[in-house]
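@here heads up, posting the sequence + SMILES for the pyridoxal-5'-phosphate run so it's all in one place. Ping me if the SMILES looks off, I pulled it from an old spreadsheet.
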Amino acid sequence: MTATAMPASAFRAAMPPTDHVPRPYTGPARDEVLQLRRQFTNPAVFTMYRDPLMIVEGHMQWLYDETGRRYLDMLAGIVTVSCGHCHPKVVAAVNEQSSTLQHATTMYLHPNLALLAKKLASKMPAGLDVTYFVNSGSEATDLAITMARLFTGNTDVIALRNAYHGGSPGAIGVTSHSTWKFPIPSNVGVHHAICPDPYRSPFSGSPEAIATQSATDIRELIRYSTPGKVAAFIAESIQGVGGTTYGAPNYLREAYAVVREYGGLCIADEVQTGFGRTGSHYWGFENWGVVPDFVTMAKGIGNGVPLAAVTTRMEIAQALTQRIHFNTFAGNPVSTAAGLAVLEVIDEDGLQENCRVVGGHLKAGLTRLAATHHLIGDVRGMGLMLGLELVRDRATKVPAKAETLDVVEAMREHGVLVGKGGLDGNVLRLKPPMCITIADADFALDALDRALTQVGHA
Ligand SMILES: Cc1ncc(COP(=O)(O)O)c(C=O)c1O
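bot reply: prediction finished. Complex structure tokens:
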């Protein structure tokens, strides 16, 4: 069916109601803020949308601009707001800790860090029970690779093409998108293996066969490009920035086996996929039946508060004790108070199950839209980590880059904020706060239907 055969008006979902009333905004005018940003911030600090959006308040799945206009947040501050914007329990925990002790450093004992480390261990497979807290996902990537190198005595690291693991000098080395890489050396000892995503694989066959060929290729990469020993393999359980890409369920199991044969440790980057977002499991790697040696996490663990971590086994963590390692804000009492509250809220509010149910509903709706809108080349993901690859032609798969931007803009006009990703920027990313409802999902689908109709007809 073409876009014309099913008019966008075939179904209409109203913006679901909320009791929340935003406060009147009394700060500087949007134009003034824009001018200050342009004049006084590094121009690399980019904004989304042709006409930048100013956001001044948030409540659960809702965001408000300075005029009080409400938006459904389907990106969650780039997959960071796990429980909902300003979730009352997280806010209360942060406020309580902020007014008691804001900072002390890990040189002193504080209950929050110890309790959060214990709580994380309870969520992990047995043996993964030692955590080092940091402030960002990039730091977590760097630290996991450092520990892997120290423990194994090897240097080489295998990462996947199309991966994003952060922007620090170390993390950018394992990141594999030319759009993020500066022309300065960063990849020392890093090798990028073929991404197992079946939609754009150089291999052919079933997704499982592509996964096996991609995993086997790691062996060749190690044999040809390394001393025959590696320190680590790092992979997202589902590539986030890359556009919700992943291999068939056998991929990580087979890749881990190859890497371990050559002495490497396996790092699961759970920065986007952790904390129940994939619905069926608490951690993304559990979907693939593997147990990593490190789990790196950030974003959702703090619900917006800067907090990240690396969990590993005690024997591996010991490797870091051979020299001093210190991080001023690591395990800060306020961030760890947020982390403790977040982990409780995920369980109390049933957010993992909500991701499964609402995510399943949303994915089914996206698949239905794909039957109507030929711009949609592929619908991917699980739980509330979904992606929609837009292509100009389903046979040639030419990325619909400009159209994706137009859809993102049109959805904003319809009151829904989404993200985009992929090397060519042609993947719509739907990764809302994990508290959205079926009604919210329907509203987002309706906005997407309308946006795709507008863009498809332009
Ligand atoms: C999978 C993944 N790993 C690591 C990072 C880096 O996290 P941060 O921006 O907190 O440094 C990101 C950020 O988007 C990410 O998506």
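MO: Residues 78, 136-138, 141, 164-166, 236, 240-241, 269, 271-272, 298 surround pyridoxal-5'-phosphate (CB under 6 Å).
MO: One more: Residues 1-10 have pLDDT under 50 and may be disordered.
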